[in-house]
Amino acid sequence: MVHLNSFNDIALTNGSRAVMTGYVYSAQYVMETLKQHTNCDISTEEFETAIYTELSPPSLSLVEPWGMDFQLGVDYSGLRYGGNGTHHLTNRSLCIIPNGGCNQTDFPPDPNGCIALIQLLPSNDCPLINKAINAEQAKAAAVIFYNHINRTALITSRVRGAGWFPGEPLLTIPALAASYSLGSTLSALSSARVDLQANTKIQIVSSFNVFCETKEGNASNLIVAGAHLDSVPEGPGINDNGSGSASLLEIVVQWYGLGLVPVNRIRFAWWGSEEVGLIGSRNYVRGLTPGELGNIAMNLNFDMLGSPNYYIGVHDGSTAVKAQQGSSVITTMFEEYFNYSEVNYILIDLIAGSDFLPFIEADIPAGGLAAGAGSIKGVEDRALFGGFANAAYDPCYHQFCDTIDNINTEALGSMASAAAYVIQKASQTADLRAFLQAPLTVHPHQTQSSCEIE
């Protein structure tokens, strides 16, 4: 808990451990601890990231053919990266955009400052950013995306390319999400005119990843074991993800304290800017040469290991979009530890939501652990792990109360021990790549969704 207490102090001093607040101090703490207790090669990797801030809540109201104020969070909401600047749009007409807005020809040639109204289609016809940029280039004043008839929740997507990189487009005009009820009503009113206000900011800032690489071990069988070090701006992020970062840091300290020497080289990684779209890990993977990518045998990821109303979650490699075989073997390594320790666990998907994703997309086997975020615990998990059914696994997920008091030390101890076991086993496996391709039996556990972790 020493490292977690240090992260907590950093967050209390700086407001959070986000990219623009306490992240740098968290990284400095990690590097100073590594210098004091290890002889690994410590390095950083800088990158640029786009930071979005909603300076004040948006507003949307109907002024013609009658007056009506719509309800924020129910009828509509702002979209992350949906605009840059202060916009006061009054008495604007609506342009009803057909075909999802994926083509520039969907937009009128002379929009005259209208607000583009686009219905989202059930299929992912094209990325949201493409639609929004088409609207901006067509000289629309703003864009409203409303649900298709079968969707009830407002979308929460980022209006930005996945894993934004410098040079990729960012939106200037406001972008809002709207319910099907609101969107269909507005589209049916031929004379509808609305007021829309938005006040947002997008800044391009520098951040960095931190690495600690063992000097020993086969560099052609590299194990990248990582955890994201940043928090959201709204809170200290002690569970998300001080728990994973602190566990990884202590594993490294204990590794060197015990004098362990790996057969396969390990690169321990503390990722930056995970909370704004896995930017640090995406930048790392994208920046590798084909040869450097080929040297990575596997990735391990540890994100939220101390959730107060926890489950013990092992990522299920069979759900990965690529590298299923090797990822499934990694799953069995964690299962081996929990079965031997007689600790209950469940399998959770390996699809999205954390820093394993860029490795999976690069066809590199990956796996890891998580203890649950903001979704609701069912009676089945209560029977396995105790706690409270019909309550969030982490009721302080992405909130100001994610402090040192938000950690379940029993869960954290089990998770950190499992992480240490798998890291050590992988590092000592002489023919690691052959091991990762070994035949497997079918998992007896049912896999649950965990895509909300990010």
Automatic annotation (TrEMBL):
Residue span(s) of domain PA: 98-185
GO BP terms in the entry: proteolysis
SUPFAM superfamilies, per database record: PA domain (SSF52025), Zn-dependent exopeptidases (SSF53187)
Residues forming coiled coils: none
PANTHER family linked to this entry: METALLOPEPTIDASE M28 FAMILY MEMBER (PTHR12147), PEPTIDASE M28 DOMAIN-CONTAINING PROTEIN (PTHR12147:SF26)
Entry similarity comment: Belongs to the peptidase M28 family. M28B subfamily.
Protein name (Swiss-Prot/TrEMBL): Peptidase M28 domain-containing protein
Organism (species): Arcella intermedia
